[in-house]
Amino acid sequence: MPIHYPNGKPYQGGAQTASQAVNYGGRGMTLEQELNATNDYYRQLRMAVVYKKPTPIQIVKVDYPSRAQAVIKEAYFKTPSTTDYNGVYKGLYLDFEAKETKNKASFPLKNFHPHQIRHFAECLGQAGVCFVVMRFVTLHRLFVYPASNLITYWQAADNGGRKSIPLSEIEVNGFELHPKLQPPIPYLTGVDWLIQTKKVGIIDE
């Protein structure tokens, strides 16, 4: 079944996204799979309730070979209006995106979209805990990075600034995660750090 992006181009499955398969920590799981397994683990232990938001799809062609059967022949990805994951932890609203890069020295801002930045700003304005789980694939390093800092770099880029976030900045103002067997990506340790360091409010306009 052909699936298309909102601009009409066919989906090839080769773009570098959060669901791209990488051999990380010897497990060979995708970032999305690891986060989903982590969220299952957290829910089972009643530590947090977090889910991945489904990707909206517009169905444009359906065949009905029989009355009791429908076969989707063509569909398009709708443009998402928010981020990848949301949920509740310790009475706080969590909202985050999962991204990865093969770059070694910086994280490209082109990995994000304007609607995601707007959504982060809106959630931060309501005192939500917002962040990005960033993976440097080649370096085998993983961080929780505050959405407020991401917004600062995004706004600077709009005003002619650099188009990426230096790894050195992420090391200083982010929280490095160390994958485990259970859970695969212990991002709640990064969330605790965000709460303790009060990196949960919106930046000044």
What sort of overall outline do the alpha carbons produce when their principal axes are compared?
A: globular
Low-confidence stretches: 11-27
Measured as a percent range, the helix fraction is 25-40%
Count every beta strand, where a strand is a DSSP E run of 2 or more residues.
11
CA radius of gyration is 18 Å
The major pleated sheet works out as: 6 strands, mixed
**DSSP strand content:** 25-35%
Average residue pLDDT = 84
Give helix and strand order, one letter per element, not per position: EHEEEEEEHEEHEHEH
Number of helices: 5
Walk across the major sheet and give the strand order. Answer: 2-5-6-8-9-11
Secondary structure category: alpha+beta
Terminal CA distance reads: 45 Å
Q: Which terms would index this structure?
A:
205 residues, alpha+beta, six-stranded mixed beta sheet, globular
Q: Could you give a quick summary of the protein structure above?
A:
The chain is α+β, with helices and mostly antiparallel strands and 205 residues long. It contains five helices and eleven strands, in the order βαββββββαββαβαβα.
Description:
- With 205 residues, the chain is of the alpha+beta class.
- Helices cover 27% and strands 31% of the residues.
- The chain is built from five helices and eleven strands.
- A six-stranded mixed sheet has the order 2-5-6-8-9-11. A three-stranded mixed sheet has the order 1-4-3, with no helix packed on it.
- Strand 3 (57-66) and strand 4 form a beta hairpin.
- Helix 2 (114-125) packs across helix 3 (147-158).
- The relative contact order is 0.15.
- Residues 11-27 have low confidence and may be disordered.
